[in-house]
Structures are given as structure tokens and as C-alpha cells.
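Hi team, as promised in this morning's meeting, here are the two structures we talked about. I've kept the exact order from the run log so nobody has to guess. The first one is mostly here for context; it's the second one we should focus on when we meet again. Sequence first, then the predicted C-alpha cells.
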Amino acid sequence: TDGTIDIDDVTFSTCNCTQPGNGGAIAIVQEDDGKIIINNVQFTSCKTLNGTEVYGWGGAIFIKTSVAASSLTLDNFKLTDLVFSFDCSSIANAGHYIDIQSLDTADTGANIETKYLLTVNDTTNLYTNETYRILYMGIKTDDVNNGQNSPSKHCPLFTTCNIGEYYVKTGGNNQKGCFDSSINHCLNFDADKLKDTSNLNGDGKYIVYVVDSTTIPNKLEITQASTEFPRTFRNDGESSTAFRPIEYGTNGQFDINGGNVLFNYINFVIASNSGSMILIRTSTSQASLQNCQLSMGDLTSNSHQFIERVMGKLIINFLNTSTTEDISTVIDLITISAIEGDVSITSGTFGTTTYGISSTSSRVISASVGGSVAQQLEISSSSFTQCTNSNGNGGAMHLEIGSRGEIQLNGITMSGCQSKSGGAVYSTISGDGKLTIKDGCQFISCSSSGNGGAIYAVLNSGATGIFSITGTSSTFTSCTVSSESGLGGAIYLDLASGTETQYDLTGASYSTATDKLNNAQYGKNLFIKAANLRTAVPLSSQTKIGAGTDEYEEANPYNLMGYDGSNILAIPLYYIYSAVKNEIYHVNNAVESYTIGSGYNNTFCGHYGWPCLTIGYGLEQSSISNNRYIIGIISGYKLRSQLMLKIDSQVIKIQNSIDDSSKNPAVNSILLIEDQGKLSITAGSVSFDKITFSINENATAGYVITGESESIEIIMNYCQMIMRSGSATIQSGLIELSKGSLSINGLDVNDIRIQSKSMIKVNERAGNVNLESCSFKRLTRIGTNSKGGVIEAVIGSENG
């Protein structure tokens, strides 16, 4: 108290002290009314030296003062006209020239500056120059902690305190304190200051500024989970938008083991590291990437994961891949395991139209989501361009979604992505997992060598979840698979038994521009493989599958198709969600090789554009649907074997074909009678309307139509009988009525040459026969026993 130390016109040269000492040249304790006057003093090569690793503060001067900052004046605290050589230093990086322990460092520094209590010769802007921050420092008395230097609690006296802020820069020195970007920066993440666990995982702030570029030679294990002070790695300025490269050494890795980490404006440079670049491995871990980039460096191929999320939370906002080079990888860039923790990716740019991301068996994102704890992966407003996986599934994404797992793709764009199956996205769904694509996603020019040019989605057996495309229309443009063998140019959907209803493609929109159409062998826009296709695509479900207008889909049956169970017949979905028009079940077998419209017996046949193959099967389909038994014969149908018609108490109607869009219902349909082709009616009523019976000379002898039961009724309206072109003589007549009744109206028969048969034969036990408005011209019956060229009848007691 009341003591004074006055040092004037003195030089201290090569003075030092060893830890735990402070002040290489001078150490002063100021109490109460004590006074310190140091004037015109020079310090040369003064240092504190390594010893016990505590204290060692103030390379030239250390002052411990208990005087309140506001009470410091030129009368009691005068440090003027001082000179320090550049090599004065503190072993603890705590004030290489001066270190002051006081009640409050910021207040002490502010009072010294305001009252000009410190002047140093040959300096520029002593109180504001950032390059001086580590030279003149202080520490609060409450933070002394017995001189522990890790973590350092020292702050610059005059500039903003940045405890926990570190700088790495080309040409730096890892033995320095990393405290600034000018003279005390470190070289890379191997600096003691950066990897010291009391700093890296301490309670306070930890920010590493990458001034230009740096490396991470070895693993940094981060366990500090502070939300107030996440471990932060960023470029060198709050306002800068420049990416700063971090290149990985062989053992380089950010190992986030329960910690909370933020990367901002970092360019992660792929190098020869042995593991994943960022590992997130415990449930309390969190990593956030804001405005970051991934690039290849000097490598031609990447063999290490960029991000491996085992557990914990991952947030990515604005992540770009290189815009100056392709990325070639043999491993998934981002992997997400199905254990615990949500993942959010927003505004990512993966690949460009010039530089893509290619692999033979890997994807940009491989995610497994779901488990005992609910998990969500959300990818929004991101683009995936030229992402190629030539021998694997999913060019950009491979998604496995289990119980309690949910993945949302919102407003993303996938362009030019390619793979074996699912050019852009390959997904499997189990349990109550959900995959939702919404809000205007775009799939452009994606392709696969297998199925699903853009998307391949599987709902596994037992799944109760859903695959959906909803909200603002998501568009599919120029997406393709092989036109010779591929299914689903845009979407391939595989629905196991019990999952047939668990999808919704309401928001899907397929291009109709002629130069931007999707393409495949079957299902140019959509292909559904379902255990039960009728359950998957019920009547009037066109909205659910994203179908266009009825007129468009009927004219383009290859756009939407599917398999029913194990049947590998590709069926146009239009003919599944649409009812058979006018309840007329059409048949066609005119074409020997199958094509759409040529006729095929299946659950959904009967449409004019999707007819059944045989009359018998058509009758079965008609009875299942409406119990009316109406068959429409498409011209050229060939009857080559005997067909038994026996339906009690019902009318079978066999008529001409009717296509509401173009077919004139007044035009007869031609039914070709060949070989053993016969219609034998043994029960019920059969009506023939507007049928032209064309008899081939190879048709066996007999009659095309026979009535063989008393209860039957044969009705014929506006039919014709002709000889097949090129036939000289036929051996088959039109009708033989043994029993039952016959009514014919408007029959037209012309230019017939027949062997030993009449056109119509009525036997003795037949019932009533009525012919009206019929025309028979130029008929010739040849052979022996030529009785009646048009009608041969035996009228008995039962004829009426």
C-alpha cells in the first residue's frame, strides 16, 4: 500500500524466467494505492520459458493489479515510451510483451486505451491493430485457475477477446498459439492448441478459422456436445463467402463422438484418408454443414466416404460438389444408418451438367432409415446431376426405409442420373416406412439399364407404409429404360401381396411433348408389378396413378402398364381402371404373334383395344362383370374348333365390334370359319347381330351353327354369309336346327357354292322357324341328293 515502483531509462536484455514464473523481465503485484511507473524502457529477447506448464505469462512484463480499472491513471499506472524486440515471447502465448491480471480484462484495456496509459515506440495504431492482439494480453483474476493454460483464458487487452478462436494458414507454425492470422497462426489441425482436448472438448468456445487452406493429417475426436458453443470450422470471416480447403491426410477424420460440430464455407478435399471424412457415430452427435463444398483434389478416384452417419443428427444446408472436375467414387459419398437421429439436406448441388459424379456400384446417398426410434431423412431444394451408378441400383440415392422410418424428397431436381435399376432413386419400404416425393420435384433424362428410368420402388411383403408422390406436380421428362426389354421409363413400382393399395401417385406428371417423352418397352411412364393388379388399380383409379385424360391414355396404351402376379403379360393400366364400354366383351385372334389389341385371355380383357383371345374366355369375363354375356367380334376372328354354348336362362349375344371413338356400329364384323370351327348351342338363347360368317373351303363338312336342345333359341339379326376369298367350294352350311326355335331377320347370303348342303337345315324335331327380310342370291348346291339350296326342312308334328 502506497508503494511506488519507478523504472526509467533502463534496458532489459535476454531476461527470462521459467514456469511457473511470470514476466520474463519484470513481475509486479499492485495493491490498493500502489503506483507503477515504467518509462523509456527497452526489452530485448525477454521470455518466459517452459517448465511446469502452468503460468509463464508476460514475455517481458507481468502485472497483477487489484486496482479497479476505472481507478487506473497516469499517476498510478504509467507505462510509456516502451520498446520491445520482436523475439520477446511467452511460452504460454499469454502476452508476448505484456500480460496483466486484473478484475476485468476488457475494462482494464478500455481504461488504458482511453487514458493513454500505455505507449510503445515504433508502433502503428497500438490499441486497434489486430496484429498486436497476442502481444498485449490480460486475464481475469477469477479465471486464473492456478495458472492452467488449457484452455487459455487470456484475452487481448485492446481488441475483441477471442478466447477459443484459432487460426490455421499456409506457412503457419503448429507450435504457436493459433491466436491470429498474421504472426501467431498454426499450420494445420495437428497443432497442439487445436487437438488439446481441454480446448477441443472444453466447455468454452472453439472456432477454427481456415485463412487460406489447411490439412487434417490425423483424427480429431469431438465429444463436446455444447449447443451454445458448437465446435466450429469455417472460413476466415463472418462476411466472407469464400470456400476454404481442408485436405485429408491418411488418418484424417472429423470423428464426432457425441459432439456438436459446425462446418461453414469449408471445401472438403478428398485425399488418401483411410476412413470416412466425417464420422457421426453416437446418438448425441450432431454435425451441421453450412455452405460447404466437396472436391477431388489431385485424386482421380475416391475410395472413402464423405459423411458416415452411424447415429446422431446431420444437417446439411448448401453443399456443392466441385464445379471444375468430375468426382469418381467407388463408395457411397453419404451413408446413413438406421439406428437413431434425423437427417436434413437442403439446397445441395451434387454434380453439374459439365461435371458429374460417377461410380460402378455406389451412390451419392445411401440411406437406411427406421428402427426402434423414429427417424426422418428430408432432402429439399437440391439437385443431383449426372449421378451415375453403372452396375448398382440407384444413380443418386439408394434408400431402405423400415418401420418408423420416413424419407421426404421435397422440390428436388434429378437430371441425367443413371443406374442399373432406378436411374435416380432406388427404394425399398418395409414395416410402416414412408417415402414421399412432393412439391414439384423434377426428373429429367434419367435412365437405367434395367427397370425404372427415374424411380424404382419396392413395397416388401408385410409392409404397411406407403410410397407417394403428392402436392405440386412432380414431373418426369425424357426418362428412359431399354425400349427392347425395360419396364417403367419413369417409375417402376413393385407391390408385394398385401401392399397393393399402399401407394399414391396423384402428384406425378409425365411429359406429353413429343420430343420429351419417357420411353420403355412396357410402361413408358409407369410400370406396376403387383401381386394383384386389380387391387392395385381398381376401377376409376386413374388419378391415383397420375394418368392423363382417358382419350390420351387409350391412344397411348404403352404409357401405363403392369404385371398381374406372376403373369408376365404387360397389361395397359388404362384397360384396368376403365370399365369395358357398353358391357361388350371383345375378342380377337386375327394376329398370330401377340401385340396390344391382338387378343389375350386375362382378367382385364374385353375392351376393344384390349380384347380377349377366345369367345369362351370373353363369356366368362362378361358374366363376372355384369352377367349379360355380350361378345363383340373384332373382324378377322378365326373360329377353328367347336365351341359349346350352354347357359341356361340367359341370352348370349354375339355381335359386331363397337369402338366408341371410331368404329361405325352399322358395319358387320367378319367371323372366319375354318377347320373344325363350329358353334353348338345346347341350352339357352344365342343372338347373332351384324356378323358376317366367312366360310373357308377348309372348314369341315356340317353346319356352322347347330341347335340341339328343345329349350334353345337362335336369333340372327342383319347377318351375312360369304365364301372366304379364293375358296371354290365350301362344305359347311350356316345353320342346322335339330331342336329349339330359330328367328332370322335381315340375313344376306350371296355368291355361295356349297357341297351337298343347304344354307339352313331344319330337322323334323325342330320348333318354330321364322325368316324375315332375308336375301339369298346366286347360291349353288352341288353334289348328290341336292335338296334345297337355301332351306332343307322336314316338317313334322313338332315343327308347328
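And here is the second protein, the one for discussion:
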Amino acid sequence: MLYNKIFFGAFCMLFMTLCSTPTNNAQSNENEKENTTASNQNNSGTNNASTNNIVYNTTGKYNSIWGVWGGGELTSDQMTKYSFLKGWYIVYQWRKLEPQKDNFDWNYFDEQMKFAADHNLAIGFMVWVGPHSPEWLYSNGVPKVTSQTVKRSGEFPYYLDKTYKDRYYNMLAKISEHIKKMPPKIRDKVVMWMSAEGSTGDPQPYKGLLDDSKYNISEQQWFDFKKEVWTYMYKLCASENPSVHLLVNQANDGKYFNWLFNNLPGVWMKAGDISHTYQFNGELDFYDRMKKMETKTQQDISSSRLRGEITVQGTWFNQNESWNMYALLTSALHFGLDIFNAAPKYLQNPTDTIAFNFFNLYAGQKVASESPGAFCVLKDALDAADTKRFPESKYGPVLDPEKVTNYTREVEKKKMKAIKTGDAEDEDNDEDQGAVESTAKNNNLSEERINKILQEYSAYGAKRGDFSDLDATPESDNSAETYKQTRTTTKDGRPLNAKRQEKLAAKTKKGAGKDQSTNYQKKREANMVINDIGVNLIPDNYYRFLTQYSPNTTSRGYWRVGPGNQPYGRFARGFEAKTGRTEMFFALDKTFFKDNTSQKKVSIKIIYLDKGTGSWSLNYFDGSAKKEAYKVICTNSGNWQTKLVTIDAVFAQKLEHSCDISIKYLSGDNTIFNSIEILR
């Protein structure tokens, strides 16, 4: 008990040291609030432009290490563009760290650590082994294992060799010793150490088929090896003062999850799928597993955190990057992702700052009573396997009767095919078994069923695209495309000279350049960008602490709406007066406020599409009755607008359907909404 108290105190002190100084142009919520009196107010729908890109106040108790992290080669001048970064992730190679036996080169490692500390960023790191192991290992008796894939050949050490294990553990121990000797200014920023046991940070030892089968490592042998490594590193991390948190790749299929969860209390885990993509087949299974982690975090704020990195290749993502980045990050928040790692090339679009700031506000918030706010980002999902919403008697069978055998074969052969192509268990291609089955089902859906669902929902923007449709054109006038043509830095953030910028702009304009994406990456990106029918999907909204009552009976889902230079249009919900969908109700988590009987002063932020001339109102419970806070009359500007208002409300779920807030249709055109937030 005493140890826990000491640890908690140390961790809180660490958080205080990591708090970033707010930028001069950052506005606090108090400055952004539009005070509303008890009487009803009309609003033309034309708001102050500054409220459309709110910089949330994340100072004080709500500032933390959770949020968007960077990494790579950046200068201090370039860092001024990325003031939203919360941490810095360092990846180094063993062969560069220890180029000669027992001769360690800490220069790059220390430079990166100092750079992060100088910019007041939390620090995490990983040292790659496997194909990045030093050559001297092999001259010291470690067998060199070679492999072949369709794409490349590979060289790896034989991990079970005693000499290899001795040298590997020695390297880990030296890193731990080096961290202990760092100046406090740097040392106290180090919060995370990710294990790398095999091929980079991937869960498998090798990639491809081995040239010599005697070096094959069985699944059980590899798991036993990994458990030894994790246990050793877990103890090393605990020996640091303050403690460093071990981060482990659980594998997207979760095969290591239970052992890690039960044997290494509080261990942090990588959650790849939810940072790579959104609206992916089988995501419901992944969501259920991540919720187990959240229970641990609620008991200990330093425990059981999740990290992931973006790995999109741009084939489809850049068709409307601002839409997709916002959808990706709001989806990640719904799953509970705490750290979103983004290399410099993913930080180039200025519009994405809106999504990054939103993610930073809610990342890490697992306890309602401690969260600065609650949100509900509105969306619909067309799950073709949902026979309750889409009865087979009306929409046809889920699987095409002629493809049932193919579905079974596809599930059985998935892993074998991946091994032969070298993509098995790739960090960027490691599918949950539930996702494998869901994807196979998605690939063999009944065309009759797909067509009937599309016939009903295509009028609202839903699509069923395919990754092979490479001639598809951008869906809107997206500022990300324009920005890409005038990019002034390399993909890793280094400045481009003027001549290189001109060549790059000309190349982009002509559509030149070869797409380096794998088929898996193309399918994944196409699936999230142009395909709205899937299998085993999150059924409706992305939310945290604020839920909508019966979304599909009180509102209509929309896809791809509004201008492309604002981030809110990938998903939305709106009224549909002709079908009785005229009021959306929302319930705040009962534990958000400790006292639910007295009035609380909060800000309500609503983002809506100012299209048409319809009118609507915001309503709440004031302690005695349902009350209208204001009403809005749209002016048909065609842009997404933000309405932010301060009210005194009682959150006792006293409105209809045991809810606290409602958005009500009044007259005219149906208004479409992106999200609603309740901010303290």
C-alpha cells in the first residue's frame, strides 16, 4: 500500500513536470464562451470565425503526456509549427547503438532525448533488433538466419542462441544504466520503453520463408522467449526512478493480451489497428478487448495505457486528408487510445491541427469525473452482418450462397498466404482473428444484400467502393491536396530547397510518382475512405462520456457532407422531418459530476452544417423543467459552423428518454450535425 502511494505521488510529480507552457495565441474556454441568458435567443448561424478552430485550454490539471506525439528529424524552428505535440518517440537500431562489441555510441540517442526535453516533451523509445542487429554478433557465433519474401530477402539473428540472448540482455541492461545517469531534466521526461524482440516492433521473429528450416521457431518457443524478455524489461523499467513504463506489442489479434494483462500489472500496450485505420471490419471485437484495459486505468491513472502510430500510405487517405484524419482520431478516442504517434510527414496539413487539438483534449481521459469534457461525434455505420437492422428476409442473405465455400477457404488460408508473401504478422498487416473472419465475410457478401442497403442509403452519401478503382477522383475540393502540391519539407520534416519544391509541385500536378502501397494497405485505406458497408462495425457514434439515445430512430446518418477544407464531413447525423426524426437526445455519464442535483455551469459546443434555412434549438434541464437555451436559423453558407454557449444546467437525466440535452428540429430544411460537446 505504501509503495502504491509513493508511486502515485511520483507519477503525479512527473505529470507536473511534463505540463507544457500554453502558447500566447491559445485561447481559454472562458474567452471562447458565448454567455446566454435565460431568455431564448435567435442566432443567424454566422459565428465568429475563431470559434471554428478552437484551441482548447489544456493547462493545469488537464494537461498531460497523453495526445499526439512526434518523432524523427526536426529543427527547433520547425517545432514551432507543432505546438500541439505532447511527446517524442525515438527509434534507434542496435547495430548503430553498439557498432562494436561493448562499444556503445550514445550520441544520437542522447541528442534525441535532449531535443525532446528542451521542447518540454515526454519521451518514449524503442531499439530495433532483428534485421537491425549488429554484424559482429555473427562473427561471435550467433547463426545468421536468411529468409525470402516476394518483396525482399532478409537477415536475422537466431534469437534462441545462447550468445545472442546474452548480448541482447546485456544491451538492454546498458540502456537501463544509461538512463539512470541522465541529467534529471532529461531523465524525468522518459516515461515509456517499447520492447522489440524480433523484426522491428512486430510480434514475429522473422519475415518470409527461411532458407534453412532448422532455424524455424515455433509459436510456443517464441512466446516463451518473449515472456522472458518482457519480464526482464518490466523489472528494468521498475528499477528506474521515477519508473519507466514498459510498452509491449500485444499483436492486433490479441494473442498476447491475456498473458500481459494478468502477469505484468499495468503494462502499456500497442494498439495498432485503431491508429492505422477507422471503420475496419471486426472492430467491435477489438473494442471489447480494449475496454478491459480501461478498467485498470480507472483504478490507476498510470496503468494500462495504449499507444499506436499512423501508417497510412496516402493512396486514398489524401483524397480528403482533413476528413480522414479527424475520423481516424475521433475513432481512436472512442477505442481509448492514449498516445497517437505521427511522423513529420503526417503533420504537414494545417487543417489537421483541429483534429490534433481535439485528440489532445480527450486522450487519456478514462475517468468521467476527471475529464475536461464529454463528446459525441455523430456517425452511422452500415454493418452488413447486422441481421437485426437489416433482416435477411428483406435485404437478402449475409453471405452469397455461391461464396460460402470460398468464405471458409479464405479464413483457413489467410495466415498461410501471408507467410508465403512475407506479410504475416507484419506490424502494418497483423489482423485480429475476428478481423480476418469479418474481412472474409465482407469479401463474400451477397450482392443482393449490398445493393439493397446501398439503394436505401446512397442518397445520404454512403458508398461501397473498391481499392482497385485507382481512377477514382477526389470527392471534394480538399485543401490537403493543394497543400501537398506546395509542400516545403521532406517527408521526415527537413526543409526543401526552392528547386526541389518546384520539381515536387510539378510531379504532383502531373500525377507522377509510383504508389509504394502494398495491396493490404490499399485495401485498408480504400475500406475506410470509400467503403461504408462492412462487417462487425462500431454501430453508430464515436463518443466519450456522452451518448445519444437511439441514434437511428431519432436522426439520419450522413456520409461525405460539407466542404472538403473543413475536417467534419466524413460522417454526420441530421434531422429527417418526414420520417419523424426531429429531436436528438443525449445523456451525460452519471459520474461526470459528483453531485447531479444542483446546477452546473458548462459550455455546450455544437458543430453543424449551415446548409439551407432550417431552424433548430438546444434544450436542457434547468432543475425544474426542460428549457430552450437558444435557437439557430441557418443561413445557407455551406460551411460547418460552431455554436458555443454557456448554460447552468442540472444533469440528472430528467429529459425524455432519461437524457440531459437535446437538439430539436423546429422548421424548414433538415440540419446536419457533426458533434456535440459538454465542457466544464
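Starting points for discussion:
The CA atoms of residues 47 and 641 lie 7 Å apart.
The chain has three domains: 1-63+575-680, 83-249, 384-534.
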